[in-house]
Design brief:
The chain is of the alpha/beta class and 268 residues long. The protein has 11 helices and 7 strands. It has one domain: Vaccinia Virus protein VP39 (Rossmann fold, 3-Layer(aba) Sandwich), CATH 3.40.50.150. The mean pLDDT is 93.
Length: 268
Amino acid sequence: MSLLPVDVNQTIENGWQRARLIPGFLHENEARFLGTLAACTPARGVIVEIGSFKGKSTVMLATVAARYNLGSVVAIDPHAGLSYLGTPTPHQDPTFDEFLASIKSSGVSEDVEIHRSFSRDVAKDWNRPIRLLWIDGDHSYRGCKEDFNLFSPFLAEGAVVAFHDSLNAFEGPIRVFVEEILRSDHFGPCGFVHSIAWSQFRPSDGVAFREARKKLERRAVRLLPFVANDATPTGFRRTAYKLNRSLVPRKHISSAQWVELLSPTVST
């Protein structure tokens, strides 16, 4: 079992105190969990963030990375407003200047490797192992699957993949999580925290977690018809979607619980 890094709870608290001041769509428990992923994932490699927006998650990740000498967080985003969410998303001005201001005011500028680009362009020359792949960019199925397909080949043994907004009525994150993660023996422990779907890359023993993944899949797969073809459920369908979503376990996971979840043995 991996040991908790020194003062991890205080480090995550520091990260949240910085991140909470930044506009964004990351809830507090999600931000804290993201900090846990960055600090406690037992894999070598870099932290890759696809979708930075104004820097809320970037600041949390970079605060943790700086404390534990994990290298710069690779932050990938074209900063073209919210256009990646598709129509009828309201127009929003580019976010790059606000992103730069966020990481500067938080004191983490030196701990972020900035790519003002689409992920597909960064992927063309990518050759580094990844310890944490945080996917929060294009929420369409096509876009989310592309992000996963481009960067998942570089996951290090024991790395973690996490998708934001998997339980927020977008097709991409939940569908990719079900089809590419929960149905694959390359992955082991898995779950949800608020709207974050996560799993650990365990190609050597992922088969041992098959039943646990199937159990979670039976809950998560019920959401797919409601968001098929990137549709947004409305009316009765929205009510039914929320009912099925309520059946998906998604409680917060502390750093100590996280370490236990990633134990080399399968929980009984």
